[in-house]
Amino acid sequence: MRGARGLTLVALTLFALAAAAVRAADESQPAPPAAAKEPAPPPSVTVIGAREAHGVLGRDVRSPTDEDMGHIVDVIVDRAGVVRAAVIDFGGFLGVGSRKIVVDWNALHFGRVADKSDSITLELTKEQVNAAPEYKEDKPIVVLGAAGSLQPFEFDH
């Protein structure tokens, strides 16, 4: 038995020495150089004149006959990122009794938006907007459009 115990002790000693040698060799070698990263290209920049473009959220929407049609509260884009429609908060007083409807982006006209007090014109009547189904998040979207201007959304099945 004594011989087997001696062999085990020698084997463990050799194993420990080998492990220490491997650790020492790993520590003495320099780390492999990190892959040289190329700097990211600078972002593209477009400058738009202050009189050329304006935000639309919160803007008042009026009919062609200057009736109050509500205000834009959201913009809807399709999966390709193309703007398709606007959500308009319509009716009510101080948020009470109002409802949201969705109108086709092409039914909106932005000719008078030089400053925040200008409104956007919606090519629909108040009666058409009143008859529109209410927009609810996570439900199918019914988009109200001007005559002949709607293109269906593309759905993945």
Features:
157 residues, alpha/beta, 7-stranded mixed β-sheet, 2 helices, 7 strands, 21% helix, elongated
General description of the model:
This protein has a seven-stranded mixed beta sheet with strand order 5-6-1-2-3-4-7. 21% of the residues lie in helices and 22% in strands. The protein is elongated and about 85 Å long. It is built from two helices and seven strands. It has helices spanning 2-28, 126-131, and strands at 60-62, 68-77, 83-90, 99-104, 108-109, 120-122, 143-144. The model is unreliable at 149-153 (pLDDT under 50). With 157 residues, it is α/β, with parallel strands linked by helices.
Brief rundown of the structure:
By secondary structure, the chain is an alpha/beta fold. It has two helices and seven strands. Strands 5-6-1-2-3-4-7 form a seven-stranded mixed beta sheet.
Q: What's the layout of helices and strands?
A:
Layout: H1 2-28, E1 60-62, E2 68-77, E3 83-90, E4 99-104, E5 108-109, E6 120-122, H2 126-131, E7 143-144
Parallel strand pairs: 1-6, 4-7
Antiparallel strand pairs: 1-2, 2-3, 3-4, 5-6
Shape: elongated
Overall pLDDT, averaged? 76
- The number of E-state strands comes to 7
Could you give a short account of the major beta sheet? Answer: 7 strands, mixed
Radius of gyration: 34 Å
Task: Give the CA-CA distance, first to last residue.
Answer: 75 Å
